[in-house]
Design a protein that fits this description.
Elements lengths: L16 E9 L7 H21 L3 H5 L2 E5 L3 E6 L4 H5 L2 H19 L7 E9 L14 H11 L1 H8 L8 E6 H8 L12 E7 L4 E8 L9 E2 L5 E2 L2 H6 L7 E2 L4 E2 L30
Parallel strand pairs: 4-5
Antiparallel strand pairs: 1-3, 1-4, 2-3, 5-7, 6-7, 8-9, 10-11
Helix pairs in contact: 1-4
Length: about 280
Amino acid sequence: MELDLPEHGKSSPLPPYRAVLAVDMENFSRTSGRNQQVIGALIPGLLEGALHRSDLAQVWENKRFPRHGGDGYVFGTDPKHLPFLISPLLENLQKELESIQPLLANLDRELRMRIRVSIDVGPLPDLGEDDPVNAMGEAMISTHRLLDSEPVRTELMRTDPDTTLVAGIVSRRVYEDVVLGGFTPVNPSRWRQVNATVGSKSFQAEGYLFVPTPSWGPNTVNGGEGRPDNPQLLEAQGAVPNRTDADTSRVDNSIGINSGQVVQGGTIHGGVNFGVTSNDG
């Protein structure tokens, strides 16, 4: 095989930018072999159906470098479609999954099909299926790392399995260009910034989570206030819980400028110092 290597010390042309969307099913390996075959066959149809619902049939018909991995799927498309891959596609993927739940229940009453989705964008070679470097690049790698990251996995763990069927995560670039840029109707307040890490890989990146149909599951407490019962879940979501000194039972909180109220639970030893001291009232 002959490779077209760039000449040392000279620039190379930048590959075309491609939006990349990847999906993966939660707990696929825990289902039976028979059910894995059924689910694997359903995944492309679910994506196609959600794209058709979203008036994006041409995206499916013209998808770039598609790959079906059994429990997941990835494809590329023109970056102009990025806003629509967020909304309405993620909402419609939720609807598609809701529509097939009766079918899954006929196979196995305990079977659930819940999907993680990741979206990124960047330069990727788009040279055809037979080319050995087709779709190889950082954007493809980061899309899969975001998909496997702890925060998006945890988002499904902490929600009701019969209600929340889709959890999406996008890269910082996609969030800034598409969400903060105002190209999608999903308000920034519905996104949560997270530290996307993959335990088995040396990957760490800023990501943004969005859940089309949020809910509270068995791993939340305080009447559904969104506080996971397990501190590891908090850490996986990028939140840092207050640290308690085991010897003094003291809770340390750092409070800066505050124009509202501060509510402290537990016992306070000593005083509470605010970041601003003033005699002006």
